[in-house]
């Protein structure tokens, strides 16, 4: 299996700030392990939060991770659609286009 290539900016951050990036990674892992949510649900939540913050790269990343954890295309899209009344249609439409970069 081919090794997954991390985004260039992430690689640069890891190279320039290895202790910080290790701590960020460990914090994320600790948060995931802190409660009863399964990995798929965690990724859908993080994808939705990234969408709300309009973070295209993070939506891409968490969409990929959600798929890896067993989320369907329909679950990913629904997780974004339900945000419409919270963050508005234009923001959801943008986030949906970012998710479709990965799911389509």
TrEMBL record:
<keyword id="KW-0560">Oxidoreductase</keyword>
<dbReference type="InterPro" id="IPR003779">
    <property type="entry name" value="CMD-like"/>
</dbReference>
<dbReference type="Pfam" id="PF02627">
    <property type="entry name" value="CMD"/>
</dbReference>
<feature type="domain" description="Carboxymuconolactone decarboxylase-like">
    <location>
        <begin position="18"/>
        <end position="101"/>
    </location>
</feature>
<dbReference type="InterPro" id="IPR029032">
    <property type="entry name" value="AhpD-like"/>
</dbReference>
<protein>
    <submittedName>
        <fullName>AhpD family alkylhydroperoxidase</fullName>
    </submittedName>
</protein>
<dbReference type="GO" id="GO:0051920">
    <property type="term" value="F:peroxiredoxin activity"/>
</dbReference>
<keyword id="KW-0575">Peroxidase</keyword>
């Amino acid at each position: 299996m081919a090794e997954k290539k991390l985004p260039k900016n992430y690689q640069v951050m890891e190279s320039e700030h290895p202790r910080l990036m290790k701590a960020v990674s460990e914090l994320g892992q600790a948060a995931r392990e802190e409660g009863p949510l399964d990995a798929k649900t965690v990724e859908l939540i993080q994808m939705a939060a990234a969408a709300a913050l309009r973070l295209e790269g993070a939506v891409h990343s968490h969409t990929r991770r959600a798929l890896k954890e067993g989320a369907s295309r329909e679950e990913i899209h629904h997780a974004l659609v339900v945000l419409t009344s919270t963050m508005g249609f234009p923001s959801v439409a943008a986030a949906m286009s970012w998710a479709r970069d990965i799911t389509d």
